[in-house]
Structures are given as structure tokens and as C-alpha cells.
TrEMBL record, chain A:
Keywords: 4Fe-4S, Heme, Iron, Iron-sulfur, Metal-binding, Oxidoreductase. Gene3D superfamilies: Sulfite Reductase Hemoprotein, domain 1, Sulfite Reductase Hemoprotein,Domain 2. InterPro entries: NIR_SIR_4Fe-4S, NiRdtase/SiRdtase_haem-b_fer, Nit/Sulf_reduc_fer-like_dom_sf, NO2/SO3_Rdtase_4Fe4S_dom, NO2/SO3_Rdtase_4Fe4S_sf. This is Nitrite/sulfite reductase. It comes from the Bacteria. The keyword Transmembrane does not apply. Residues 119-272, 412-549 form the Nitrite/sulphite reductase 4Fe-4S domain.
Automatic annotation (TrEMBL), chain B:
This is DUF934 domain-containing protein. It comes from the Bacteria. InterPro entries: UCP030820. It comes from Paralimibaculum aggregatum. It holds the Pfam family DUF934.
Length: 553, 164
């Protein structure tokens, strides 16, 4: 994992000191509220419905145990004992006081963390694959690229006052777990003509009120050209992106209005003209970063004995067996698994974790996962390097804190934005909708029978809950003072990305669990053996679902 | 309006010619984009003011005649001027570069790094934000990560130097 050197440490310390000064200058009237707002946003501080909210960056979702423990400490000392993991692999605290924020930032800096650019019209936290460095089919660990982008995008003098926020995601695998096609820029590590890794660059994806799937900007970009190419892409956007309307200011609108060919022509012209060598990262620097992401030394295990022991425990404990099946994934090193810790207990708030749960995850990671944790954009936590022989112990430790829900990728593994319970932009509740649906499908056997199914809920059209790309998407809006929920079907955030189709008129708050159940029952009745919900929807189309939902309306 | 550069407050050496005002006989003049043709034909030492929707490439042919370029920032939140400044420098403009408008002290470091030499800020901003704030904010972060920009050194190059 990446470690700060003296330069990174000084940079973050100076930035924290700068924010402390900015708060003072705001209080002294030197900065107006309008001037202070983007400065506090670029340090992660939002003004929400009830209080300030602090969003802390977890670059590409990777955390060390001491960092997770610091998050627990912050939750207890300055918040209400819990935090909320987000779809950007970050964590946010919903109840800090503005006067405490500089102290919180100091506490974060002591464990090599910060809140830089977690909000504001700038380049946000670069996200990545939670199985980075673990997935057997991966070409290269995408976090090397993501860390390079983190550094390059931090306080970039040219791109810190963009027309709108800018999100970048990187995947090193063909199977996309980083949702690159719904990002402003999506980067896929691919092999070039000579077999050397390089990048496929996508642009103009995004959700919100005008959802788009990203288009290909460059089929193959040599690795050394990454930063100059990003500068060219951002410069064209910064100069020409719309600034007349906040809702048309993302790069997806520029790409849509110019057309991908014209946008690509402008980027390539800028790229060809600029002094690329002056901007690119030196090869030694890339090598320095890459060394931090080498696979940790995983002790050799007696894999057969481990597997036998795990099988024996699974036979005795059916709940362990279900968890093993659902929440663990293959690892490139034989005898190891990547474990998903579900933050979606039935009836809980998706993505929330208490300080005690954070400490347990930190302890387990320290003893059983080579000191590493990952936050996923699905709002869960991954322990990437668990020996098969330790799985039962890990499960028991997690179970003690209610972290053993065996529902990864199932109907109750719901993504939801904070919604009207916290957010100033929300027009409807989302967390209680997620809780009601989870309660409706609580029975574990039924969840497994239904199979892979992602439900994503947003409490307003800004789509922080990614509803457009949920297999089932739920969008809460305000209709003349009453919450109304629109349902979409067939969305997908992976390499086969698609936007969901609306079923028709929306439903009332109380109707939603029943509506989802009718959609699921229709799928169960019509599916072919082994066919997932998404595959069935793509084969069947909307008609049978529409019939089931509206026939008797 | 007040002019501040990396050393602090300085005098405004560039009289801006208002719409309909005649160009001076001699000396310096800061003219609007729509009077560039007329100004180029004069013998004046020229400054050119650009609105934020300017295409930097369109100005490049005139670099030889321009001693100064002023880039308009309609608000501190409109960051197009950062890219205009950097593009002008990358295209080889060597004259004085000014950011004109209600930018704030907290942006001074970014402006300097994008190739600007000075800011021209409204009195209202200058009253609230004293020159000391501009100077201290410009030095708030010693080293940044980006390469190929003006001003402060890059962390990436510092690291390389350490290994040499």
C-alpha cells in the first residue's frame, strides 16, 4: 500500500494549515460566504440539512488498519459514533462542528489521510476496483495509475475551478467493478499491440439528470502519456464546457453537444501540441509508486488442509457456508480469498458502520488480511487477502459485531444515497426505502434463490445512489409535496453498461416494497434455468414487468 | 482596481482604453479584443484584454506585437482563465500576463503557476483581502505535484533530484 514520503506529508500538513487560516479569514470577514464555500467544499465540508458534513477521501478505496481506527476515533470524538461509507469509496461524517474540522483534518493527516477535493468543482477522489491486485484476471494493479492521478489532480492549478465536478475511475480488469462507463473519464488498463499494458480511455459517462454511458476517446494510450493526455482532455473541457447552466456543465454534455469525434479531435490536437515530456510523470516516479502496490508477502499455507478445515466448518455451520459462498471471491494466490464484509444488515442504513465495527474490521484486517482493507463503491468493505484456513475465524469475529450478513450482490445488498434523512438536495427518503425492501426480502434462502440482483436508490435526480445503473433502480422525487418513486429496470454499471428503462408512472412510498416484490416474482416466474435478473430482462424486455405492475392500476 | 504581483501591490502601468475612447498618440494602451486591428496598426506598446471565451490559438499570431495580455475572470468561480493563461504560455507568449476580475487571494498560487504575473482586482475585494493575504496564500503550499507549470517546484522533480 502507498505510504506518504516527506513531500506528501508536508503537502497535506500545509493544506490543513491553509484551511485553518481560511476558516479564520472567513470569520474575520476577509472572505465572503460565497468565496469561502468552494474553499470549504474542496476540503470536504458540506452544509447539509441538519449540520455540516465532512467527507474524507479514501483514495481508490484502500485503507490500512491504523487509518480505519482513526476513522473510528473521529466517529466517537467528533461525531455520533458512526460513519457512512459512500459510492465514491469515501467516508462521510454527518454531525461534525465546523470549528472542529481543522482538528479532524490534523488527526487525519497523522495517518496519511485528508479530505482534499472530496467535493467542489474539481477532480474528485479517483476510484478503482475493490479487488485490485487480487483479481486473477487483472492485467495490472489499477491503484498505481489511480495514485498517480491522485497526486497529479491534487490542487491542480489549472483544474481546481472547473465548470462542475469531475470523476475518474480506473480498472485493471476486463470485468469492470469500478463502473468506469459512468464516469467523466473512465480508464481501463489494456494490452497494446506489443503486449505492453496501456490505457483505453473513455469519456463523458455520468448519471444525474442527464445520464450517459461513456464513449471511447482513445482505444490505446501508452502508459507514459497518461498525465499529458488527461491534461489535454481537461483543458478542452475547462475552456469549452458550458458555464451558463449548472445542470449542463458536466463533460458529458460537452461531449454530447460536440460529438465524440469533434471532442476527440480537439483533445488530440491539444495533446499533439503540448510539451508532453514536461508534464508526464518520470518513469522512476511511476516505478516508485508501483513498488508500494506489490502483492504483500502472503505466507505459504497448507492449502489442502485449509480447504478441508473450511469445508468441515461449513458443514457444521450453514450460515458460515452461505457466507463463504456469497461473500468471498477468488484470489490470485492459491489458498487465499477476498472477503466482502457487508455493510447491509437487514434493516440497517446501507454503508453505515459504527466505531466499534470499524475497529473490528481493522483488527481482522491486521491479523488476517495483510493489514489491508478496501471500501467498495457498493458501500461494503473488502478484506482482500484472507487465507482460506482463517475464513471461519474471520467470520466469527465479524459476526460478533453484526458484520456477517451473507448478501453480497443479492437483493438486500442495496446501494442508497443518504436521502431526505440527511441531504439538503434530496426530494425523498432513500434509507428507509432500502430498509423496507431489505425487510421484505430478509429470508436468506429466498435471496439466494433470486440470485444476483442490484437495487440502487437515489433520493433525488442527482442520482448519488446510481439508480440508472441498478438492475432495479429507484428514484424518489417530490410530486406536489408527496414522495413518488420511479422504477427503472435493466440498468448495469459493468463492462456491459446500460441505463435502466422506466416502467411507467411512479409509486407511493408505502407501495415500493410490494412493487419490487412483483418485479422479482415476475422474473422468477419467467426466467430460464440459471438466468440472472439482468439477462432475463434483456431477453424479455419491459412488457411482462409493465403488465405485472400496472395491469390492475 | 488594484494591481498585485508576487512582490505585493504595484502601480498600474496599463491604461485601459474604454469603448469609444480614442487610442492615445503614444505610449502604452490596454485595448479590448474588438479594437485589436486598429491597435495593431498603431505604434503603441500594446496590451490586449481577452474575455474568458477566447480561443488561445486565435491570439498566437499577434504575440510579437503584444507586450501584455489581460485575461478576464467574470467571477472567481469561473476557472476558464486558468486554462487560457496556461495555453498562452505554452504557445510561447512571453509578455506580462494579468488576471483581471474578482479573483481571490486563495487562487493567487494557482494563477502564478498557470503563468500569470499579476492580478487586477476590484477595490471591494482589495479592501477585504490585504496584500499580506495574497503573499501568504501564494506561499501556503511549498511544493505541488504537477510538472510543466510555472512557479513552485514539483514534488515529482524533487523526488527525482533526491535519487540522483
Amino acid at each position: 500500500m502507498y505510504r506518504y514520503d516527506e513531500f506528501d506529508a508536508a503537502f497535506v500538513a500545509e493544506r490543513t494549515q491553509q484551511f485553518r487560516t481560511q476558516v479564520k479569514r472567513r470569520l474575520a470577514g476577509e472572505l465572503t460566504e460565497a468565496e469561502f464555500k468552494p474553499l470549504r467544499l474542496m476540503n470536504g465540508v458540506y452544509l447539509q440539512l441538519h449540520a455540516y458534513m465532512l467527507r474524507i477521501a479514501i483514495p481508490y478505496g484502500t485503507l490500512r488498519p491504523d487509518q480505519m481506527r482513526m476513522l473510528a476515533h473521529i466517529a466517537e470524538r467528533w461525531d455520533r459514533g458512526y460513519g457512512h461509507f459512500t459510492t465514491r469509496q469515501n467516508i462521510q461524517f454527518n454531525w461534525p462542528k465546523l470549528k472542529d474540522v481543522p482538528d479532524i483534518l490534523d488527526a487525519l493527516a497523522s495517518v496519511e489521510m485528508h479530505a482534499i477535493q472530496t467535493s467542489g468543482n474539481c477532480i474528485r477522489n479517483t476510484t478503482s476496483d475493490p479487488y485490485a491486485g487480487v483479481a486473477p484476471e487483472e492485467i495490472e494493479d489499477p491503484r498505481i495509475t489511480a495514485e498517480l492521478i491522485r497526486q497529479w489532480s491534487s490542487l491542480h492549478p489549472e483544474f481546481t475551478f472547473l465548470g462542475r465536478k469531475f470523476k475518474i475511475a480506473v480498472t485493471g480488469s476486463e470485468h469492470d467493478r469500478a463502473a468506469i462507463k459512468i464516469h467523466d473519464i473512465g480508464i481501463q488498463i489494456v494490452r497494446g499491440p506489443d503486449g505492453a499494458p496501456g490505457y483505453r480511455v473513455l469519456v463523458g459517462g455520468g448519471l444525474g439528470r442527464s445520464p450517459f454511458i461513456a464513449k471511447e476517446l482513445r482505444g490505446f494510450l501508452p502508459k507514459a502519456d497518461l498525465l499529458p493526455y488527461l491534461e489535454a482532455a481537461l483543458r478542452v473541457y475547462n475552456l469549452h464546457g458550458r458555464r451558463d447552466n449548472k445542470y449542463k456543465a458536466r463533460i458529458k454534455i460537452l461531449v454530447h453537444e460536440l460529438g465524440i469525434e469533434e471532442y476527440a479531435r480537439q483533445v488530440e490536437a491539444e495533446f499533439a501540441r503540448m510539451d508532453r515530456a514536461a508534464v508526464a510523470a518520470p518513469a522512476e516516479e511511476v516505478a516508485r509508486i508501483a513498488a508500494y502496490f506489490a502483492l504483500p508477502e502472503l505466507p505459504a499455507r497448507d492449502t489442502e488442509a485449509d480447504a478441508a478445515e473450511t469445508r468441515r466448518m461449513a458443514a457444521m455451520e450453514p450460515e458460515f457456508a452461505a457466507w463463504l459462498e456469497q461473500n468471498t471471491a477468488p484470489h490470485r494466490v492459491p489458498g487465499y480469498r477476498a472477503v466482502t464484509v457487508s455493510l447491509k444488515p437487514i434493516g440497517g442504513a446501507p454503508g453505515d458502520a459504527t466505531a466499534e465495527q470499524m475497529r473490528v474490521m481493522a483488527d481482522v484486517a491486521e491479523h488476517h488480511s495483510a493489514g489491508e482493507l478496501r471500501i467498495t463503491h457498493e458501500q461494503n468493505v473488502v478484506l482482500p487477502h484472507v487465507a482460506e484456513g482463517a475464513l471461519f475465524k474471520v467470520w466469527r469475529a465479524l459476526r460478533a459485531e453484526g458484520l456477517d450478513t451473507a448478501n453480497k450482490g443479492l437483493v438486500t445488498d442495496i446501494i442508497a444515497c443518504p436521502g431526505l434523512d440527511y441531504c439538503a438536495l434530496a426530494t425523498a427518503r432513500s434509507i428507509p426505502v432500502a430498509q423496507d425492501i431489505a425487510n421484505r426480502f430478509a429470508e436468506p434462502r429466498r435471496q439466494r434463490e433470486i440470485g444476483p440482483l442490484s437495487i440502487k436508490i437515489s433520493g433525488c435526480i442527482n442520482a448519488c445512489g446510481h439508480h440508472h445503473v441498478g438492475h432495479i433502480g429507484i428514484l424518489g422525487i417530490d410530486k406536489a409535496g408527496v414522495e413518488s418513486y420511479q422504477i427503472t429496470l435493466g440498468g448495469d454499471a459493468t463492462e456491459t453498461a446500460s441505463l435502466g428503462d422506466r416502467t411507467g408512472p411512479g409509486f407511493g412510498y408505502d407501495e415500493v416494497p410490494g412493487v419490487i416484490e412483483r418485479v422479482v416474482d415476475t422474473y422468477i416466474a419467467l426466467r430460464e434455468p440459471g438466468e440472472t435478473f439482468l439477462a432475463a430482462y434483456r431477453r424479455l424486455g419491459m412488457a411482462p414487468f409493465k403488465e405485472a405492475l400496472y395491469a390492475d392500476h | 482596481m488594484r494591481i498585485i504581483d508576487a512582490t505585493g501591490p504595484i502601480d498600474d502601468l496599463w491604461p485601459r482604453i474604454g469603448a469609444g475612447e480614442p487610442l492615445p498618440e503614444a505610449g502604452r494602451a490596454l485595448v479590448e479584443r474588438d479594437r485589436l486591428g486598429e491597435a495593431l496598426a498603431s505604434g503603441l506598446e500594446l496590451g490586449l484584454h481577452l474575455p474568458p471565451d477566447t480561443e488561445p490559438a486565435d491570439i498566437e499570431p499577434h504575440f510579437g506585437r503584444l507586450a501584455m495580455i489581460s485575461v478576464g475572470f467574470p467571477s472567481f468561480a469561473d476557472g476558464r482563465g486558468f486554462s487560457i493563461g496556461r495555453s498562452l504560455r505554452q504557445r510561447g507568449f512571453l509578455g506580462r500576463l494579468r488576471a483581471s476580475g474578482p479573483v481571490i487571494a486563495d487562487q493567487f498560487a494557482y494563477l502564478l503557476e498557470c503563468g500569470f504575473d499579476e492580478v487586477a482586482i476590484p477595490e471591494e475585494v482589495a479592501r477585504r483581502q490585504p496584500p499580506e493575504s495574497w503573499l501568504s496564500q501564494s506561499a501556503a503550499i511549498t511544493f505541488g505535484y504537477q510538472r510543466g507549470i510555472a512557479g513552485r517546484g514539483s514534488i515529482l522533480d524533487q523526488r527525482r533530484a533526491r535519487h540522483d
